[in-house]
Amino acid sequence: MKILSAEYVKGTLELENRGMGKIPEVCFIGRSNVGKSSMINTLVMKKVARTSSTPGATRMVNLYKISYEFKGIKKWVLFSDFPGFGYSKVSKSTYMSWKKIIERYIMGNKFIRRLIWIFDVRRDMDALDEMLMEWIKDRGIDFTLVLTKIDKESRQNVAKKREMFGKVFRNDSIFVFSSKDGYGRKELLSHIFNIVG
Ligand SMILES: Nc1nc2c(ncn2[C@@H]2O[C@H](COP(=O)(O)OP(=O)(O)OP(=O)(O)O)[C@@H](O)[C@H]2O)c(=O)[nH]1
Ligand SMILES: [Mg+2]
Question: How much is the pTM?
């Protein structure tokens, strides 16, 4: 299992003229500032995605074309880095506009194989997260939950959180991760590669 190359393709909000051929796509979604862009950089071991300590850094769906080798075969996958939702006080309206983008982008895109739903391990689910979960469930979209920033939390609390989320979600699709030290990188990558085949 090896990343061969990773490059930024474009930022888009449109599905038309996707122009990527038949490459499967994996979407990284979650609250603003949770670490979506950092996760992509850590996974591909290259700083392709722009990260920022100020929430709202990613405004478009940014596409990254990744070449990798898995089980001896060379393949391509697109990682799409989504704008975060719910970072301002007007969270409901930002959430609604975010949802519209997501809806348009995801529902019409037959190349999407999975949503990677990223959570700050230190946070709990709130009303917005619940709404998103309902939305995903209603549409029957497959997703993987990743608890990130685990370097900022005690091992005990990480384990607790994982167990707690395991009761809500299917246990085998929950991962723990740190973009800072790369913890969980191999597990998550092979999970993704297995999905995109
Ligand atoms: N300690 C620690 N910091 C992290 C981790 N992942 C991200 N960060 C930090 O969290 C901040 C936000 O990271 P981003 O990757 O830009 O977050 P994002 O989800 O892409 O944010 P938006 O694009 O604004 O929605 C940055 O200051 C990162 O350095 C992690 O695993 N550990
Ligand atoms: Mg970002």
Answer: 0.93
Q: Which domains does the chain have, with CATH numbers?
A: 2-12+19-196 (3.40.50.300)
Residue 95: left if φ>0, alpha if ψ -120 to 50, beta else—which one?
Answer: alpha
**Does the C-beta of 84 come closer than 6 Å to ligand 1?**
yes
Q: Is the shortest distance between the CB of 53 and ligand 1 below 6 Å?
A: yes
Low-confidence ranges of the chain (pLDDT < 70): 15-19, 57, 87-95, 170-172
Per-residue pLDDT of 12-25, as tens digits, reads 877 655 667 789 99
pLDDT digit string, tens, across residues 97-107: 777 878 888 88
User: Would you tell me the crossing angle of helices 91-107 and 127-139 to the nearest 10 degrees?
Assistant: 20
Which residue type occupies 176? V
Which of 151, 179, 183 has most ligand 1 atoms within 8 Å of CB, for mutation?
179
